[in-house]
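Researcher: Sit down with what I've pasted below and flag anything odd:
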Amino acid sequence: MINTTLPSAFSTGMQGIQSGVAGLDDAARRIARGGVDGPQGTGGSTGGGIIEPMVDLQLYKRSVEASAQVVKTADETLGSLLDIMA
């Protein structure tokens, strides 16, 4: 059980962090282009604007925080198991 659960938790957490960071990068790029693609916050005819990317930015931020907590909890669990076995 331990042999498969902890590596899976670490892997899942790391994948979540990587996905969240990629999302943050994409949202930041869309915010930076917001002034070019259309009037701020309106979305314009080209789908620009900064409101949706700013909401996405917060969403991905929370996603990275949650995934980091998964990794931290898996690390603490592994540490506790090693302490018990020592």
User: Anything to note?
Assistant: The mean pLDDT is 86. Residues 47 and 70 are 35 Å apart (CA to CA). The two ends are 19 Å apart (CA to CA).
